[in-house]
Amino acid sequence: MAGSSVDINKVIEENSVIPSFKNFNRKQPNRRVKPLKQITVDEQKFLKTKEDKHKPNSINYFNISSPPSIKPTKKYCDITGLKGNYQSPSNGLRYHNNEVYTIVKNIAQGVDQQYLELRNANVVLK
Amino acid sequence: MTSTPRDDQLSKRKVYDLRDHEDLFSSEPFTSPKLYKSGVPIGIDFGTSHVRIGLTNQKDPSNVFPTTLSRWRDRKLNKGFTFIGNDVNLDQSVRTQARSPYDGAFITNWDYVEQILDYSFKHAGVSSQGFVDNPVILTEKAGAQVLQRKGFYELLYESYGVKKVAFGIDDLFSYYQNNGKTGIVIGSGNESTHIIPVIDGKGLLAETKRINWGGRQSSNFLSSLIALKYPYFPTKISSNQIDNLVKDFCYVSRNYENELSKALSLDTLETFDITVEAPFTEIEKQQKSEEELARQAEKRKESGRRLQEQAQQKRLEKLIQKEQEFEYFSTVKEKLTFLSKKNQQALLKEENFDDEADFNKYLGNLEKSLKRARNQDVGEDETAEEPSFPLADIPDDELDEAQIKEKRRQKLMRANYEARQRAKREKEEEKLRLEKEAQEDLEWRQSDLQGWIHDRREKLKAIVRKRKDRAKLKEQLNDRKSHAAQLRMKSIASLASDDTSKSSNKRKRATIDNDPNDTFGTNDEDWLIYKDITSIDDEELLEEEETQLIKLEKELLEFDPNFTEEDTYEASYDWRKSTLHLFLRGPRPFNSEDSHEQHQIHLNIERIRVPEVLFQPSIAGLDQAGISEVSESILLDRSQGKGFSGDSYNVLQDIFLTGGQAHFKTFEERLHDDFRSFLPVGAPLKVRSAVDPILDPWRGIAKWSSMSEAENSYLTKQEYDEMGPDYIKEHNLGNASLI
Fold it and tell me: In this structure, are residues B222 and B605 in contact, taking their beta carbons and an 8 Å threshold?
């Protein structure tokens, strides 16, 4: 997309100045990129190993997560988002009325799972 | 769907452009080194969507840019460059390479963070030598992960030689900036939403809760919704465009159930529905000149005529053949009556028939098809006078070679002529019959209008029912196990077995492909057997039904005072009544030919469905309680046994909204309504939003940095080395120390 009136070379030049404030002698730690899963696992491990040193009932990332709702969940149509009074027996999609059911009934293979994925109700093969 | 006169009266809808990122008019600004002062704390709000950085002696951050980084290779120079923040948008090829150091709520790539910090300090004007000679105040989330904090400590102490670092919670900085003392802070950011009660300026972390839903999730949700709503949308909608759709058009519904129930009514949609058009380059249709069009039409007509003539000729030939056959078998029939039983049988065998019944059946069918063939158009006979065929009846032996040839021609011509004549007669009879019928119908209508109307209505109903049944049957056939499908299989099986059991009937059917006696297909009727098994999609039949339907409706419209346009079959498919049409195309008819309309998306229910997840996370399959429910339990837990008084009472006076999602319209009002629903009558309640939900955390840092509390909250490198990352010098706006 064009439209920017900024010279790309000027930006490169501006940003290629070596920073005066930086310590380049720092020994680079070896692993600086970690997948998301690893981060959570590491954090849990860290908390576990230091458990005896930590205050009881201390706040951490995991225990401030909001608990599941205790109110009855309302049901909505998966296709339109309207009130979902009915559920298709064949693929589990919720739908609003007869007309939406024509879509639900004849939905292409796999698309029903995409709709279910929106509310985390899809089948995940492992 | 065709547009009706009623549709033309509708006013034009406003069409919004699908906004992409803003164009850049300058590169990221540098703070002048003159403004830089060592020792002044630098505030960094290192968010998942944007970084805000600046010296805290200023009112506003000097730089605000997206937390993105792009490694880009200039192919000409064969050299790699790194672009950060807004500069990423300089070039399309740079932008496609853009990455974030975050994956979800967590930093996964510390190399990127370091480069972004380099960039940030440079732009903030840091010019000290060898190290960054400023304390640094960073934001983090309530209950942030310790190892994430550790990453920042290490980077700042080791790579930048920062002397001391302090952390604080962004939502609380924002509350502090807005002079909050006691209240409930609801911070709905890019990755998560936190609900933090604050009493006397101190955040109560023990009662803080986090909902894993933020702006990014909202955008992703909308993106999936649009992709499923318009699976064949011609252009790709970028994440930037989706973000803008969320920002511009989504709002928190004050009463979700109520609003949903009337969301797709025509009146509501006039304002509720938003039409957004994706940019596209229109393809100019080549205008053909009048002359060219005329020539083309002429060409088409000409070829049509030729085909028609050919078809007529063919039909005529067939008719003649059939007539001859009929004549021949008629003589055979006559002969049969004179013969004895035995000779009859022999003759029939000779003619390939099983018995007399078979023969009669064949003859009957032939007669019928002959009649039908005569009714078909076989072309007009141009000559009005009867032509003469003088040679046709003279025996061969009285003629010479040339005459015999001529005789053969004349014979053919005569047969041709006679066939035409007979066809003409047949047609005239048919015409008379129709006229008579019409006359009778007219008389009936005039004498007994009610009866006539009743009859027509019944006929119409029958057709509509037939259509419905067919649709049902078609649907059932999709399911292999359904009754209809089983019946069909049965009939196919029985047809197949028919073939073998009646194989003696060689004239009509044979089973082996290269059987010389296989004459299947020579007669049109042979193909009728397939009609039984594929009766659903017969286009001819459908067409006939359609014309009949239209005729019936036209008659009823004319003569039945109680039958209006609204009652017609087409009207029952009115887009105004179609939930799906209103959902997909809004309150206007859809013209699938219009390239503008092809590139338009309609936002209606999505506008409230996306923000509603904050209140009902189950909509997006998130197994957590929503904002109102969490707040309710926080308040009720605290008030247990004491009733609503004291802290709980005070806290209600200031419900405070901050974070990027605080931009949703009517968010405050909805919170107000929801809180009212669980609070006792007369409880005080005030809801407000941050002045600037996005920048206020940074401003809060600036304001806080000059306080003595800040001075006591910095952690030096020595202290860090000694105590580790899980140690925090606790302050009102920060996380709690684990040690």
Answer: no
Has residue B641 got a pLDDT over 70?
no
pLDDT at site B5: 57
Looking at the predicted structure, is the pLDDT value of residue B262 above 50?
yes
Q: How many CB atoms lie within 10 A of CB B175?
A: 28
B302 shares its domain with B428: yes
Residues B352 and B415 in one domain: yes
With contacts defined as CB-CB under 8 Å, which chain A residues touch B578? 99
Model pLDDT for residues B270-318, shown as the tens digit of each residue: 999 999 999 988 777 677 778 888 999 999 999 999 998 898 888 888 8
Shared-domain flag, residues B166 and B49: yes
Q: Is B53 within 8 Å of chain A by CB? A: no
Nearby residues of A9 by Cβ (< 8 Å), 6 or more positions away:
none
Same-domain status, B295 and B324:
yes
Any domain includes B623: yes
The answer to whether the CB of B197 falls within 8 A of the CB of B634 is yes
Are residues B260 and A59, on separate chains, in Cβ contact within 8 Å?
A: no
The 8 Å CB, 24+ separation contacts for B563-570 are B563/B457, B569/B464
- pLDDT tens for A85-99 read 999 998 999 999 999
Last residue within a domain, chosen from B386, B402, B434: B434
Query: Between chains, do B128 and A20 touch, taking CB under 8 Å as contact?
Result: yes
Residues B41 and B173 in one domain: yes
Instruction: Report the domain count for chain B.
Output: 4
ipTM, interface predicted TM-score of the complex:
0.93
Render B336-373 in DSSP notation, one character per residue: HHHS-HHHHHHHHHHTT-SSHHHHHHHHHHHHHHHHHH
Q: For residue B377, give its domain range.
A: 290-434
Query: Cβ(B275)–Cβ(B16) under 8 Å?
Result: yes
Contact status of B673 with chain A (Cβ, < 8 Å): no
Name the residue among B194, B622, B629 with its Cβ closest to that of A71.
B629
Nearest residue in A to B150, CA atom: A43
DSSP strand pairing (B202-203 vs B715-716): unpaired
Residue A124: pLDDT band (50, 70, 90) is confident
- Nearest by CB to A6, from B26, B206, B579: name it: B26
In the prediction, which pLDDT does A1 show?
A: 41
What residues of B are in contact with residue A117 (Cβ under 8 Å)? 224, 621
- Global model pTM greater than 0.90: no
* Most confident of the ranges A37-46, B16-25, B372-381, B416-425: A37-46
> Are B255 and B315 found together in one domain?
no
* CATH classification at residue B611: 3.90.640.10
